[in-house]
């Protein structure tokens, strides 16, 4: 035993009597120790008793310590003090020996330690010894065939009230997994399962705390501590393969994705790549039901970066889910967006054809073409027009055409690069007389209040009309007519903006003048009409 374990020698904090008592305690029998501490305690020297019990714990054999505790030489509280000091401060082998021998004196049932004293000492080890020590104690107890003691130690360590943080549990799990040669993996599995269950249970009672301190994030800790070896994902996959634990594992992963949104992206990536399509859809159903705040993000990730075959199966399972069926359009919209692919941009018509090919379900095909047509971002106007033509059914087509019109107009109003050209390309590609043309013009000329542009609305209309003059002059005129007759929102200055842009252009000044007479010239608001005329008669418009 090192000198650090001895009370200070005379001349320091302790006097010669205390030093002499420590020497006696180091060699005395338990019965003698009991008499000694009772005498000193009744003298009002409680701190001295604490010091002497600590010396007894560090300088006597394990057998003598257990004898002092078991044969009622010491009170229960003094026995706990002595044994806990030995279990925490002595070597790993001595701590393991203490637990084993203590349990042998009162073995209890086959699956649990016997006395409360044994459980209390195990709890002290779990709460206070360093992580490497606990891993070594687990290994020693496993090697000596004491599984119930290992289980009790792991239970105590994993308990939410153990005082151990989740980073401690991550460190112990990784250490135990590395000890495969000593059969510690089952203990590691128990530790991880109980820790995860506690996290999930806490998450179910409270909303996710996105500001939680980083060490308490088990999922993030396991990934950071073992980035090249996905220990959590490997354990989850093993549990998923077992029929008895499959359903619980899906619930568990859903909860982890729900309560750890900031650190679980790598876990989400893993399940999206490795899980079967049916289990992946079951996971999404659980998230939708129990963690709806995460559903959209998870659904988008499930829909991205998948092979065509996996996508077909995911859609089929999704449609068959009682929980998810109504969200199928949203899933299909995510799929056609084409996120996570090597080739940037949404799915082309050929790629959508590949998904449809060989699929007998008419509803599947119908919804997929609708989703493809309504996704306008990243497409040319002609591609959008061609996809819209694939939508069958009058009601479906009308709804899709309206959505396309709104989204193309919104892109123009938001001044997205090339958006005006895409819209004009779309209008040029539509069949003449198509109702889709009228829907698009209406969105430009009289959009809903929520879609009104931040930039000058008149500039947008004039620019589109000017570009359409050469290819579709009648469409250009119809757009201008719809816009200029809307006297409730169009101002005299707006009229002047349109005229400045179109005057001397492909539309022709005479046609422009005719349009002004048929629209602005018929405004009911006389003051507004006269104001527009004055602005047009100003030198800039002459």
The largest sheet is: none
Radius of gyration: 39 Å
The total beta strand count reads 0
Strand content: under 5%
What share of residues is helical? 55-70%
Ends apart, CA distance between termini = 108 Å
Mean pLDDT across all residues, rounded? 86
Given helix and strand content, the structural type is mainly alpha
- Unreliable runs: 1-14, 204-215
The helix tally amounts to 30
Oligomer: single chain
Net shape? elongated
Helix/strand order, N-terminal first: HHHHHHHHHHHHHHHHHHHHHHHHHHHHHH
Write the layout of secondary structure elements.
Elements (H helix, E strand, L loop, with lengths): L15 H12 L2 H13 L3 H14 L2 H9 L5 H14 L2 H13 L11 H13 L2 H13 L3 H12 L7 H12 L7 H21 L12 H8 L5 H11 L1 H17 L5 H10 L2 H14 L4 H9 L4 H12 L8 H10 L11 H8 L5 H13 L6 H8 L5 H20 L5 H11 L5 H11 L11 H12 L4 H12 L7 H11 L6 H10 L7 H12 L5
Helix pairs in contact: 1-3, 2-3, 3-5, 4-5, 5-6, 5-7, 6-7, 6-8, 7-9, 8-9, 8-10, 9-11, 10-11, 10-12, 11-14, 13-14, 14-16, 16-17, 16-18, 18-19, 19-21, 20-21, 21-22, 21-23, 22-24, 23-24, 23-25, 24-26, 25-27, 26-27, 26-28, 28-30
Please provide a written account of the structure.
With 542 residues, the protein is an all-alpha fold. Among the domains are: 1-90, no CATH class; 475-542, no CATH class. The protein has 30 helices and no strands. α13 runs antiparallel to α14, α20 (349-356) runs antiparallel to α21 and α21 packs antiparallel against α22. The radius of gyration is 39 Å and the shape is elongated. The protein starts with 15 loop residues before the first helix and ends in a 5-residue tail after the last helix. The model is unreliable at 1-14 and 204-215 (pLDDT under 50).
């Amino acid at each position: 035993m090192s000198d650090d374990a001895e009370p200070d020698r005379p001349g320091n904090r302790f006097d010669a009597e205390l030093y002499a008592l420590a020497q006696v305690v180091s060699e005395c029998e338990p019965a003698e120790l009991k008499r000694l501490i009772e005498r000193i305690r009744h003298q009002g020297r409680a701190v001295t008793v604490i010091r002497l019990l600590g010396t007894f714990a560090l300088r006597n054999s394990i057998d003598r310590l257990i004898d002092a505790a078991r044969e009622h030489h010491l009170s229960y509280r003094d026995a706990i003090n002595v044994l806990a000091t030995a279990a925490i401060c002595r070597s790993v082998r001595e701590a393991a020996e203490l637990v084993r021998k203590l349990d042998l004196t009162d073995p209890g049932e086959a699956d649990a330690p016997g006395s409360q004293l044994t459980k209390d000492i195990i709890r002290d080890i779990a709460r206070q010894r360093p992580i490497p020590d606990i891993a070594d104690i687990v290994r020693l107890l496993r090697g000596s065939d004491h599984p119930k003691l290992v289980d009790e130690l792991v239970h105590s360590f994993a308990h939410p009230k153990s005082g151990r943080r989740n980073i401690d549990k991550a460190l112990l799990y990784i250490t135990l997994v590395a000890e495969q040669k000593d059969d510690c993996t089952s203990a590691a599995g128990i530790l991880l399962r109980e820790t995860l269950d506690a996290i999930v249970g806490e998450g179910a009672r409270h909303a996710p705390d996105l500001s939680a301190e980083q060490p308490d994030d088990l999922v993030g800790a396991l990934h950071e501590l073992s980035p090249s070896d996905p220990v959590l994902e490997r354990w989850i996959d093993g549990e998923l393969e077992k029929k008895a634990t499959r359903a619980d594992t899906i619930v568990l992963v859903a909860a982890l994705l729900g309560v750890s949104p900031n650190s679980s992206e790598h876990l989400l990536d893993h399940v999206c790549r490795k899980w079967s399509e049916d289990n992946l859809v079951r996971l999404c159903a659980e998230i939708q039901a129990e963690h709806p705040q995460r559903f959209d993000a998870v659904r988008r990730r499930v829909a991205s970066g998948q092979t065509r075959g996996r996508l077909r199966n995911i859609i089929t399972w999704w449609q068959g889910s009682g929980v998810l069926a109504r969200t199928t359009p949203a899933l299909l919209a995510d799929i056609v967006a084409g996120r996570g692919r090597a080739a940037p941009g949404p799915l082309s018509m050929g790629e959508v054809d590949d998904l449809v090919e060989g699929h007998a379900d008419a509803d599947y095909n119908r919804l997929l073409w609708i989703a493809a047509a309504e996704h306008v971002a990243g497409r040319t106007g002609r591609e959008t027009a061609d996809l819209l033509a694939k939508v069958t059914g009058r009601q479906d087509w009308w709804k899709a055409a309206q959505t396309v019109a709104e989204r193309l107009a919104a892109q123009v109003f938001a001044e997205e690069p090339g958006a005006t050209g895409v819209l004009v390309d779309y209008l040029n590609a539509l069949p003449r007389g198509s109702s889709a043309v009228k829907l698009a013009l209406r969105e430009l000329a009289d959009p809903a209040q929520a879609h009104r542009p931040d930039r000058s609305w008149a500039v947008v209309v004039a620019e589109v009309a000017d570009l359409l003059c050469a290819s579709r002059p009648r469409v250009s005129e119809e757009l201008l007519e719809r816009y200029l007759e809307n006297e409730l929102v169009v101002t005299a200055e707006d009229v002047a903006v349109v005229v400045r842009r179109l005057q001397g252009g492909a539309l022709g000044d005479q046609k422009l003048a005719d349009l002004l007479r048929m629209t602005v010239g018929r405004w009911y608001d006389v003051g507004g009409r006269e104001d527009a005329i004055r602005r047009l008669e100003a030198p800039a418009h002459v």
